[in-house]
Each structure stands twice: as C-alpha cells, then as structure tokens.
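Bit of a strange request maybe. I'm writing a small parser for structure token strings and I need a real example to test against, not something I typed by hand. Could someone generate the tokens for this chain?
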Amino acid sequence: MKNEENQADVSLLEIQQMTVNNAVRQQENRQAIAQLRLDHDRDVQQIRDAASEKEREHERHMSELRERWKRDEEWFAEMRRSQAETDRMQKETDRIIKETAQQMKETDKKIKELSTRFSSTTGHIIEGLMSSSAIKIYEDKGFVINSLCKNYKRKNKQLNLEMEQDVVLFTDTQVIVEEVKASCDKKDVEKFFRNMEKFKLLYDEYKDKEVFGAVAAVNYEDGADQYAHELGLFVVRVASDEIFTLDPFKMDELKRF
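Reply from user aminoacidic:
Good idea to test on real output. This should exercise your parser:
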C-alpha cells in the first residue's frame, strides 16, 4: 500500500509541477503576446508617424509648387501684358515711321521741285546776264563776233540726237558754244564735252568752221574749272555782280570739235 501511496504522491506532485509549469508557460506566453502587441503597436505607430510626416512633407511640397505655379502664372501674365504693350508700341512706331517716311518723301519732292524751279530760274537769269556780256568778253580777247544765239536747239531723229546749246557765238570762221550753269562740277564738264564731240553731227552746216566749247558758271566745284581747262575748253566765270570774265587761254591748247 505504501508503494501505491508513494506512487500516487509522485504522480500528484508531477501533476502539480506540470500545472505550475503550464501556468508559468502561459504567463510567459501572455507576456510574449503582450510584448508582441506592444512591438506591433509601436511599429504601427512608427509607420503612422512616418506616413504622417511624409504626408506633411508632401503637403509642404505641393504648397510650394502651388505657390511657384501662382508666381509663374503671374509672371507669364505680366509678360503677356508687356508683350502686348510692346506690340502696340511697335505698331505705333511703325505707323509713325511710315507717316514720317511719307512726309519726308513728299518734302523731298517739294524741295526737288523748288530746287528745279530755282535752278531753272537762276539758270535763265545767268544765261541772260551771260548773253548780254558774252560778245564783249570774247571780243576783248580778239574774236570778232558777228552774232549770238540763245537756247540753240537741234534734233535729228535719224541720228537719235537732240541738243540744246545755252549760248552760241559766231564769227566768220568760228563757232563758240557755251554751257551756262549756276554751279558747275566735273560731271557737268564731262557731259558737255561729250555732247560737243557730237556737235557737228547735228550742226553739219558748221563742219568747215572751228568749233570751240566753253563753260560759264557762277561757282565751280571740286576743280571743275581746272578740269575744263585741261579738256581745252574756255572757262568763263563771274568776277563781280553782272560782270563775267574769260580765263586766260592759249589758242593752240583749245580743243577744236
């Protein structure tokens, strides 16, 4: 019996020990579960905190972007207004330039017309003065002038030639053709000289006479008078009011046309 009792006591003790161990394990499990829950809650909170921070950071970033977009839109709007104003000013400037160009064109036309009228009037005055003193200035140099013509015109359709001589003086054997200018430059001298080379083609009745050329001007520009001398032309100039003089010359140096 004692052995049975002892075995029973051992079994009871083992059961008690197992119960205690189970209780300990259950407590440990509960503690482990509680710790897991704490860890899980901590991790969840950390994730939530991180998500909140990301959300706040994203919101800050979006706010900055919205502010930048607003500034950019205002800048573009200002640029559009500025460009519109620039375009308006450019159109106005173009209009003013166009109107000014037209006014200048009209003014130039009027100046040209006035200049032409003035030159024509001045030329006629000088031609009148020249013709009234031409005979004397050449006779003072030994020429015997028989007659004088003004605005001596001739045209030949077959030769396609047309000339008008301002003043022409005649001796028995000579013809002096004068080009009269208020102002004379080298181009004027050159043009007159080239026309004189065709003189006898139009005026063939003078083919047996000595034909001389002369330029007469109030003002000679850029050495035009010296150029005329070099080409063998008479040079007539104004010495004082209504008084013309003939520059010194040598007969053998004069050009015969």
